[in-house]
Write a structure and sequence with these properties.
The chain is of the alpha/beta class. It has two domains: 351 residues, TIM Barrel (Alpha-Beta Barrel), CATH 3.20.20.140; 100 residues, uronate isomerase, domain 2, chain A, CATH 1.10.2020.10. Helix content is 48%, strand content 7%. The chain contains 19 helices and eleven strands. A four-stranded parallel sheet has the order 6-7-10-11, with helices on one face. Strand 10, helix 16 and strand 11 form a beta-alpha-beta unit. Helix 16 crosses helix 17. The chain starts with 12 loop residues before the first helix and ends with a helix.
Length: 466
């Protein structure tokens, strides 16, 4: 076997035994995946995936960034770019991955991949140069079968609900197709308006114009622009959306009056706003989104702290989300104060905060979530959705925020087969943390069992209104 049954459990026998008993309670629970980036077209068409490379390598920025860090080029890994020759030989790309699989030792990607190889494809021999062809051929043969189509894998993975993420300009055609089909899988979208909120986003002015066209609103005015957001949110909600998603670089918020906001908007869309004014606009829009969440009930996710597309050449040639997003220092206490002073005590507002700056967990985020009824803490995210990152998260936030001011786990994945693997890791780590609490006589094992079920399943359903 590629995977040891005791992986990620405590080393000492007593705690390990407790962790295993807890894990037995949650291992088979349905998966709630409330935040992710899988492609809804997969489930709309339900066409077979064609090969291991396109399924497991090309869409996974964790895999790409590791290989690129060792000198491999994105175009040689099958990533399509502008004015370059992209490698089209899928077997050749897979061999590069297989020959360099050792690079992923002790990374979460290694755990996720091994879980996929063993549990999805039934492979029990290590991936390396010698086994590369076997893997590629075996996975390819599996993918031809009906039981490996997207909807069938969704059922096999025991997924109860899966959320994708679409921009404010998306027509959601694939979600409409899924909803109108006779399949009972639940795939919903998440409202991601960054491309019509961030003045530094590519083609921002063109995006605003299109925003007006599809909503029949005059988005050259502040009132029309806000109405366009309300209409798009309503449209997303009509197809099952329960949350919005905001990935701006900071958590800055503002509380301008209507006249000030209108003047600022005019500067932004006429492209005369300076960098300070652009940031002020983004800050005001987070507060406006919170107001709309109170009105329409969407759960608001805020996850700042990423310096996105750090390498301009990569962005220009290959586009966004190719592994060059880098965590940076982030603050919350002062910058969230305008929004929280205005709406933070409103029982109709539900905000889930994420961070890539772990130093803020115990210093800022846990105390904020431990005070404001509108706030919950998202799980260890992105660079920290690793075994050690998840454990650090629990250790840093639990004493102050408890378990019930957190929202369970979300996998945030673009690589569909990694969904069950990531949830398996999260459940094992949480059971290990709880086992240690039991072994230290902080909580009882019965309490730990209840909490384990909450963390694995119930909290995500409640927090995301699913």
């Amino acid at each position: 076997m590629l995977l040891n049954e005791n992986r990620l459990f405590p080393a000492d026998e007593n705690s390990r035994g407790i962790a295993k008993r807890l894990f037995n309670e949650v291992e088979k629970l349905p998966i709630i995946s409330p935040h992710g980036h899988t492609d809804p077209s997969w489930f709309a068409s339900n066409k077979n995936f064609t090969n291991a490379t396109d399924l497991l390598i090309v869409p996974d920025h964790y895999v790409l960034r590791m290989l690129v860090s060792q000198g491999f080029k994105l175009e040689n890994l099958g990533v399509i770019g502008k004015d370059i020759n992209t490698e089209k030989d899928k077997r050749k790309i897979w061999k590069i991955f297989a020959e360099n699989y050792y690079l992923f030792r002790s990374t979460p990607s290694r755990i996720w991949m091994d879980h996929t190889f063993e549990n999805l494809f039934g492979i029990n021999k290590p991936l390396n140069q010698k086994t590369a062809d076997f893997y590629f051929d075996h996975i390819g043969e599996c993918l031809k079968k009906d039981e490996f189509r997207p909807r069938e894998m969704y059922n096999k993975f025991n997924i109860e609900i899966l959320s994708t993420t679409e921009s404010a300009l998306d027509n959601l055609e694939f979600h409409k197709s899924i909803k109108n089909s006779n399949w009972n899988g639940r795939i919903i979208s998440t409202y991601r308006p960054d491309n019509v909120i961030d003045p530094d986003f590519d083609n921002f002015k063109e995006n605003i114009d299109k925003f007006g066209e599809i909503t029949n609103e005059d988005t050259t005015t502040w009132t029309g622009y806000l109405n366009a957001h309300r209409k798009r949110r309503e449209y997303f909600i009509s197809l099952g959306t329960t949350a919005s998603d905001h990935g701006l670089s900071t958590a800055n918020t503002a509380d301008l009056n209507n006249e000030e906001a209108s003047k600022l908007f005019e500067k932004v869309i006429t492209k005369i706003a300076n960098s300070h004014e652009k940031e002020l606009f983004r800050a005001q829009m987070l507060t406006e989104m919170a107001k709309m969440s109170i009105e329409d009930g969407l759960v608001m996710q805020i996850h700042p702290g990423s310096h996105r597309n750090h390498n301009k050449n990569i962005l220009d040639i290959f586009g966004r989300d190719k592994g060059f997003d880098i965590p940076q220092r982030t603050s919350y206490v002062d910058v969230l104060k305008p929004l929280l002073s205005r709406y933070g005590m409103n029982s109709k507002l539900n905000i889930i905060l994420f961070t890539l700056d772990e130093s803020t967990y115990s210093r800022e985020l846990a105390p904020l979530a431990g005070a404001y009824p509108s706030l919950k803490l998202g799980p260890a995210w992105w660079f920290h959705d690793s075994p050690n990152g998840m454990m650090r998260y629990r250790e840093l936030v639990t004493e102050t925020a408890g378990f019930y001011n957190t929202v369970g786990f979300n996998d945030d994945t673009r690589a569909f087969p990694s969904v069950p693997a990531r949830h398996d890791v999260s459940r094992r780590v949480d059971c290990s943390f709880l086992a240690t609490q039991v072994a230290k006589h902080i909580i009882s094992e019965e309490e730990a069992r209840e909490v384990a079920i909450e963390l694995a399943y119930k909290l995500a359903k409640v927090s995301y209104k699913l």
